[in-house]
Write a structure and sequence with these properties.
Helices cover 31% and strands 14% of the residues. The protein is built from eight helices and eight strands. Helix 3 links the parallel strand 2 and strand 3. The radius of gyration is 18 Å and the shape is globular. It binds iron/sulfur cluster (SF4) (2 copies).
Amino acid sequence: MRGCTLFQPWLEITTVSNCNIDCSYCPQHIFQENYHGCKTLTFNSFKIALSNVPKHVALHFSGFAEPFLNPQCIDMIEYAYAQGYKIILFSTLVGLKSKDVKRLSHCNPEVTLHLPDNLGNAKIPLTQAYRDTLTAAIKQLRISTFYIMNERFITNERAGSCANTQERHLRGWLFCEKLYVPQFVMLPNCDVVLCCMDFGLKHPLGNLASQSWLDITRSAEYQRVCTNRFKTKGDILCRRCAWASANFRTRYYIKRVVQRYQAKQCIEQYRKK
Ligand code: SF4
Ligand code: SF4
């Protein structure tokens, strides 16, 4: 799913609690049912949380919602970049104004775009404002790849949370890089959960408004999940997750290599136009 180094520690920032893009593959409703904090991450809370995150941790603006649905997202990105953080962005661009693309490009983000699809799975409004922002982004940003939720879309199943996904219960030892290198998700109230699959908030690890990154990596819950990878069974989310299945990963990467190559060609063609 990510266009950046697999073993890079990162923090995904969820800037709002309600993503109205409402993609059919996305288990948004599970997040809504389980999250009871504030709806929007404030700039002030963001700054406090960031003061607890070391600089080698990349900031991944994505999490469980479209980041630009929060109008202060661009300010947060600029602030984080000025503090010395690497910026990664996974976005539909909905909510970003075309005039702010330049500001974004100065933060040198590594961008993965989520584009509209012919099936209407992602409900991205195709307004003139959206088209202007997308055109500016293609011209000015470092776009590493894109996703389209069409017939060729490969869902990562979100640990069984997406509709019509195969039920899994992995037994034995399991591997996931996120159990070696933390890639947590922060919610608008600064609570932190295990990873981008944890839409149900099964593994709450702490809160960055009052705890340091180190506290959270040493939390009893994160350590419990990490230790379970060497056991034969357990109730952790990873045992329901396709990402921990070597079989799934191999097939996923093979298909994505081809898709990424085609995406790069496509971006180049649009740029030339
Ligand atoms: S834009 Fe992303 S977070 Fe929002 S509904 Fe679609 S997949 Fe989910
Ligand atoms: S195996 Fe899945 S649920 Fe577990 S840490 Fe990795 S991505 Fe998250």
